[in-house]
Amino acid sequence: MNAKDAVAIRLQVLCAERNIAINELANRSGVAPSTIYSMLDNRSKNPGVVSIQKLCDGLEISLRAFFDDPIFEDLEQEIK
Fold first, then answer.
1. pLDDT digit string (tens) for 41-68?
2. Which residue, 42, 43, 40, 41, is CA-closest to 52?
3. Top CATH class, 3-68
């Protein structure tokens, strides 16, 4: 799994745990819904750290808490 896919899965899990829809997360975080949807599908190849930070703010977690998940432990090497 690559980092982009791991970020997308982590966002989906966090939203499901909190029972919040993508549009609600967008409202809470100040990020356009289209930006979030592009992070969840293949349109965005490189989700920016500033956008992830805003989403974390909307989820009321730190960046550290976002990335402190086993899904990020065994990512594919991005440099080939």
1. 977 778 899 999 999 999 999 999 999 9
2. 40
3. mainly alpha
Percent helix, strand, coil in the chain, to 5, is 65, 0, 35
DSSP E strand stretches across the chain: none
Calculate the alpha carbon distances from 55 to 42, 43, 74, 77, 78 in Å. 18, 18, 23, 25, 23
Domain boundaries, the chain: 3-68
Distances (CA, A) of 29 to 52, 57, 58, 59: 10, 6, 4, 8
| pTM assigned to the model | 0.89
* Residue 27, both tokens: 């409202």
Token reading at 2: 């690559």
